[in-house]
Model the fold of this input.
Amino acid sequence: MTAYTPRELVGPGQGLRFTESPRWRGDRLWFIDIHGNAIKSVGLGGDLRTEIELPFKPNGLGFLPDGSVVFSDALNLSMKRWQDGVSHDHADLSATCVFCLSDAIADAQGRTWVSDIGYNFWNPDAAPAETCVIARIDPDGRVTKVAGNLRFPNGVVITPDGSTLIIAETNGFCLTAYDIGADGSLSNQRVWADLPEGVQPDGICLDPEGAVWVANPGEAGSKVLRVREGGEVTATVELETHAYAVAVAGAKGEKLVICASDSHDPAAIAANPTAHLLIVDL
Done:
């Protein structure tokens, strides 16, 4: 098993509050800063840039084939589309989702796939919903529930050929896969990988060899895992903080960027944000 050591890309104290949904686009990594109410980007040299400032807490990030950006107003259960400097209402998910929108990704057909977090970070004592869903948003904004009864569905990826959707079930301690039909339906639900005991997957990404990198802020230790289909762990990144999301970056997928923070508690973040970005040379 390979063990990687990360280095700092953007350190604490540079204005980041809590980063999620990193996506490589062109020559920069775009990401959500949830508690910073913004979408930002960073180059591999560490130069930060604010791309979009928002009046709400965003989550989930994707890029449609026409170049527009999609992201959620997470607490209001709606998806927005940003094009030519203007924000448009893209979809209303209030009839489909439970509490708060989680991760999202767009595909080559212009569809957006959104998971429903089912967990109240503002009231951790509230029991998480055990019947969370995956919703598909078609290019015209129509919303369809395509999967349900998930246990805190979180990070989501689609294989490059568009045939398989893989989602991290945080409270299921596994990665779950579906076949994607030509009509956008999901079928053949299966466990893509059971994870080691105590690993609670958050953000995930695919590498060029088809393995999944898994951010794990759970009780099994602060680390990132590289997992093959079936559950074999082939590499780890040991951390002194918590990893909440990951992205393969660089022209050839030769880097791994980790969204890290000492806490996901909103009160702790408001008092002392510790969000930073780490990078690994693969």
